[in-house]
Structures are given as structure tokens and as C-alpha cells.
């Protein structure tokens, strides 16, 4: 069985999105997301998938929806109807990324082996949130601060967590 990594940019108040869009534009975080997820299968909800102008290149998309009639005519996409089905489809992968949105992160938290979190320093109004990261369950492995600059309106910190095993 492979490793499941949840990857998200999360504000200090756990906000991740509003009206099916991101709350900020952080070019270096986009580059990191692309570098980490390229070549892997990515699991997401339908609304997250529909927020992309087209499927992300060099990644296989597994899209979760309750809508049994929902179809995506693209060779790099597969529709499933539950997180459990998505996990079955990816069971033989060495690493699979769970990329959102809020409901998928909430459902995925018990299955995640690691978290790649970009903590965006600020509080934002949102309608989608990342679940709390319980320090009883997770160990912070790495942390890299990125200051605000002419390309980034907000400072942020990349944080890598691994699940504590009992």
C-alpha cells in the first residue's frame, strides 16, 4: 500500500477557499505544488476539479462525486463515487496526493500518512476550511518560511508533517 499525502495552502484560521476559488495567489507555492504532485495520481472533489480551467498536466485525476451521471471525457481523469473507491484505485501507487477541497480533506484526514501544508500567514473569510491538525497525531518534520515580497502578498511557511504511529 502506498503513501497518501494531503497537500493544501491553509490560512492561520484554516481557511482554504471561497466560492470555489483560492483566497490568494502565491506563485512559489504553485511551483511547489506542481513539483510535488507531477507524475502522481491526485484525488479531489468535483468542485475542486471544476475550478481548474483544464486537467493539470502530467497528473492522473481521480474525481470524487456523489453524482452517478457525472462524466469526464479525458484520458487523465477517472470519476469515482467515494473516497474509499478513490483509495482502492490508488492502492498500488507509491504516493498519491489528496488535493481538496474542504470536504475531501476532512474525509481524507484519517487515511493521510503525511501533510504538505503551506501555512499562509493571515486570516481570511472563507466557505471551505482545512481540518485541525492534531499535534497528538502529527509530527512536524520540516518548516521553511517564505516572506511576503513583490510576487507574494502574504508571507507563508511550508510545513511537512508525518503521522505518529502508535
TrEMBL record:
<comment type="pathway">
    <text>Cofactor biosynthesis; tetrahydrofolate biosynthesis; 5,6,7,8-tetrahydrofolate from 7,8-dihydrofolate: step 1/1.</text>
</comment>
<dbReference type="GO" id="GO:0006730">
    <property type="term" value="P:one-carbon metabolic process"/>
</dbReference>
<keyword id="KW-0521">NADP</keyword>
<dbReference type="GO" id="GO:0004146">
    <property type="term" value="F:dihydrofolate reductase activity"/>
</dbReference>
<dbReference type="InterPro" id="IPR024072">
    <property type="entry name" value="DHFR-like_dom_sf"/>
</dbReference>
<dbReference type="Pfam" id="PF00186">
    <property type="entry name" value="DHFR_1"/>
</dbReference>
<keyword id="KW-0554">One-carbon metabolism</keyword>
<dbReference type="GO" id="GO:0046452">
    <property type="term" value="P:dihydrofolate metabolic process"/>
</dbReference>
<dbReference type="GO" id="GO:0046654">
    <property type="term" value="P:tetrahydrofolate biosynthetic process"/>
</dbReference>
<comment type="function">
    <text>Key enzyme in folate metabolism. Catalyzes an essential reaction for de novo glycine and purine synthesis, and for DNA precursor synthesis.</text>
</comment>
<dbReference type="GO" id="GO:0046655">
    <property type="term" value="P:folic acid metabolic process"/>
</dbReference>
<keyword id="KW-0560">Oxidoreductase</keyword>
<comment type="similarity">
    <text>Belongs to the dihydrofolate reductase family.</text>
</comment>
<dbReference type="InterPro" id="IPR012259">
    <property type="entry name" value="DHFR"/>
</dbReference>
<dbReference type="GO" id="GO:0070401">
    <property type="term" value="F:NADP+ binding"/>
</dbReference>
<protein>
    <recommendedName>
        <fullName>Dihydrofolate reductase</fullName>
        <ecNumber>1.5.1.3</ecNumber>
    </recommendedName>
</protein>
<feature type="domain" description="DHFR">
    <location>
        <begin position="3"/>
        <end position="163"/>
    </location>
</feature>
<dbReference type="GO" id="GO:0005829">
    <property type="term" value="C:cytosol"/>
</dbReference>
<dbReference type="InterPro" id="IPR001796">
    <property type="entry name" value="DHFR_dom"/>
</dbReference>
